[in-house]
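Pipeline run #58 for the internal structure catalog. This entry was flagged by the ingest filter as a single-chain record with no existing model, so it goes straight to prediction. Upstream metadata was stripped on purpose; only the residue string is passed forward. Reviewer on rotation: M.T. Logging verbosity set to normal.
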Amino acid sequence: MRFSSLLKKITSILDLIKFSHTIFSFPFAVMSAFLAAGGMPGMKQLLLILAALVTARSAAMSFNRLVDTSYDVRNPRTAYRVELQNKIGRSSVWVFTILCVVLFITCAWLLNRLAFFMAPLAILVIFGYSYTKRFTHFSHFVLGLALGLSPIGAWVGIQGALTATPLLLAFAVVLWTAGFDIIYACQDLEHDVKSGLHSIPKKLGIGGALILSGVLHLFMVLVLLGVSRYTNLGSMYIIGVCIVAALLIYEHSLVKPKDLSKINTAFFTVNGIISVGLMGVTLLDIFVR
């Protein structure tokens, strides 16, 4: 295969798995790693943690595209995924998925024993998510758990042990992710009904789903404030959490039961700012205290 063809295929795969969405979990892993190290982690550890995060997330997304093909093709919003997958070739997507799993487990093995032992559990969670909409309305929370593993994994990668801090960070990620995924799922309500899939918007209606999303985000802010009790994070971090709260209020103001036209802004832009911004103020707090 010519290099240009290979590069084009890789670019298409990255588009298929929405590689840019790694920004949602990436910052929390970085926060956790720096908190676990009490400052700058060792460069080898940090690179292995980031590589593990990227490969695990990439494997999860490519696996999701493979097993959800029959549903994606019937959804106008996701039909392009099937077209792109066919263009790439399903066999190539499978090879990419398996390669990412191998690299993820290798990174975990190079970090420490606990990270290696936890790796199969992480694979089970992130792969299992793809099947949850088939039988439960709470798939949003499983997605949250999948992303919430990133701060846990980063902490274990540094310390080789678990404490309350990464669990709280993970809980915050679960609440945050479930909240914004519920918002995002509102646009697929009609498809979910026709396809027999489950979701919170299908269960509660769009209005009820948006209310629940807001409650989840409220609790996320409270959990983030609780993180400061188990760390040495100070006023800069607290200010950052307050800014996160303001951004979440703005996010919810963009989406209304009868107007979902700004969902992409709420989902991508605002949440990207939240994750990167919170990471930024956390690292500043760590280094200036």
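catalog note: The chain has a mean pLDDT of 93.
catalog note: DSSP finds 13 helices and no strands in the chain.
status: ready for reviewer M.T.
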